[in-house]
Amino acid sequence: MPAPLRLISSSPSSNPLITRLCTYAALSPEEIAELEAAFERRLLFKKRRDVILEGYESHRLHVAVSGFAARYKLLANGKRQVIGIVLPGDIIGMPSAFFRSSLYSVTALSDMTAQVVRLDAFLALCQRIPALAIAMLWHSQREIATYADHIIDVGRRSPLERIAHFVLEMHARLRAAGCAADRSFELPLSQEIIGDVLGLSAPHVNRMLHQLKAEGLISVDRHQITIDDLESMQMLAQFEPPSPLIRAGSSY
Fold it and tell me: What CATH number was assigned to the domain covering residues 16-143?
């Protein structure tokens, strides 16, 4: 089993969510300390354990600190649709915590640690710290852009383009959380899970990964992926990671 991801950036916090938020807003050390103090506890979820179950009431946010999870919907006929991959720095419980009951389920794909904060406490903190509220707005818009790309994946991109885009998306998200190097990252996901996200069979995912390797675009060593030709990968996938035009708390 792969070791939990470690932060590798020079962030003012060990929490990958705060690392991400600091790219959107100029949070002061005091504001970061206040945000860190809002977390009630840290939980460990073993691999294959559900973090949140669809239909159950939940008014707490779980912030992924290490490990991977899948957000999914279970249909009446027993089929499962993976909606997205939860990475360190992601918030589990958005948007579920804002509704009467959870809209989706989330299950751990590896051993996973998460910090917990009550939704009302987090919202109160956003009221007291405007920069945090703006950072969370950027955070939510980044998620919306990611889901829009997933729709384009299934609807219009070729299988090879989907895999290339997925690799670049995972790298960009992990790097934003301080959990990836400039060109390499750990991705302990099965080809079946990747296929569920992209609408491909596991053998098809395997063939596309081999094609990317054969063309010299990536290298794969167990769960470690290295992007050998970033420019060509971005051209193939038509990938451009969204970035904010402004940073809250900065002067322009």
Answer: 2.60.120.10
Q: What is the CA radius of gyration of the chain?
A: 18
Q: Looking at residue 242, what is its pLDDT?
A: 63
Q: What six digits make up the tokens of 226?
A: 């290295």
**9 vs 22, more confident:** 22
The overall pTM is greater than 0.90 = no
Nearest one of 125, 150, 110 to 36, comparing CA atoms? 125
Pick the CATH number of 144-237 from 3.40.50.1970, 1.10.10.10, 3.40.47.10, 3.90.1300.10: 1.10.10.10
- For 125-241, strand residue ranges (E) read 184-186, 218-221, 224-227
CA 207-231-16 angle, to 5 degrees, is 85
Query: Order of strands, edge to edge, in the sheet holding 184-186?
Result: 184-186, 224-227, 218-221
What value does the mean pLDDT take over residues 83-100? 84
